[in-house]
Amino acid sequence: MFQTPQWPIWDQDDLAAVTEVVQSGKWWCGAPLNQVGKNLWAFQEEFAQFQEVKHCIAVANGTVAIEVVLLALGIGLGDEVIVPDYTFVASASAVIAANAVPIFCDIDRDTFVLDANKAETLITPRTKAIIAVHLGGNPVDMKRLGEIAEKHHISLIEDCAHAHGSRYHGKRAGNWSAAGTFSFQASKTLTAGEGGAIICNDDALADALYSISDCGRKKGEYFYAHFQYGTNYRLSEFHAALLRKQLQHFPQQHALRNTRAKYLTEHLNAIEGIRVMQPTPGTEELGYYIYPFVYDPACFGQISNAEFKNRLHQAGIPTADCYPPLHTLVCFKNRQLRKGIDYSSANWGGTKSEDQYFPVVTEVYGRSIQFPQNLLLAEQSQLDQVVDVIQYLRSKERGC
């Protein structure tokens, strides 16, 4: 019988860490020069070290992490920010929250992430930034995107919610831009149920990020002095304590996911009609928050996406829902967003949200199957069962 490892994985050390916070009575972090709890400050240092970056600012979740970066970069009313059409809604809703306008970019057919060359065609005088989402942990072509950003004098932001530990051309994800944002939501490969972080290498930007995330305060200044717009996006001591323990186990899990993914990819790609997400050239490690592939219906008796998933479920193999393309979401199609903001320049809404304008993501989404990341922590024999089920399904349906 197929068995997927539980997620999240925890032990008595995790329980002890949270218990210690409760018993200490120090349930929040305090301020940089007046620290109360120890865990948030320690986690920021430890995560920065793991991601090989100078600064880490822990926040409440991955969504507000993006919002804080946008505000710190001065992006706001009327500005346009290019985001991939294939991502969780937060990549775009954070832009909406900053009173800016997201512009949706189609994806690369092989890597399933933002197509850098298509992104360049969407740049206008109003464009202030591009958010590169490393979907499934697969890095966007950041070298090419960096060239584009420099040429057009716009900022780059990395949404690394899926890319903990991903490495591209020698650098960790999040190090190729002004700032990288992370999520520690319950399904993520590094999790405390909720939480987020921002990483960067610029001292001045790090100070601005901290200030915005902590009520407009400045490091070293009086606690009740507020110097700019900011709000309370602080991470709790409970989440930080859990993250510190989870981070200790992460490198081993990360390495195992990459080993298992390599094995599974080799065997699935050998099945006619199956094409696994291709790592972006230059990728050395992948976060593998999800493991996506597309199937050719002609090779599987023209069965629907829903039926393909149903056959896997009947064999006990779990799947993860794919994100609907942003252009299909009701809030964007009907422009049910911020009052008083002009979205007429957007490339979505009404008839502009029709699938024909986003051909690659429409095709990929309609034929995509995704496995959850914890499937890659299973024994190799379990992965053989996955391959066998898909091979049997193809032969049974007498496809191409």
Automatic annotation (TrEMBL):
Pfam families: DegT_DnrJ_EryC1. It comes from the Bacteria. InterPro entries: DegT/StrS_aminotransferase (IPR000653), PyrdxlP-dep_Trfase (IPR015424), PyrdxlP-dep_Trfase_major (IPR015421), PyrdxlP-dep_Trfase_small (IPR015422). The active site is at K188. The modification N6-(pyridoxal phosphate)lysine is found at K188. One of its GO terms (biological process) is polysaccharide biosynthetic process. Keywords: Pyridoxal phosphate. GO terms for molecular function: pyridoxal phosphate binding; transaminase activity. Belongs to the DegT/DnrJ/EryC1 family. This is Glutamine--scyllo-inositol transaminase. The lineage of its organism: Bacteria, Candidatus Moduliflexota, Candidatus Vecturitrichia, Candidatus Vecturitrichales, Candidatus Vecturitrichaceae.
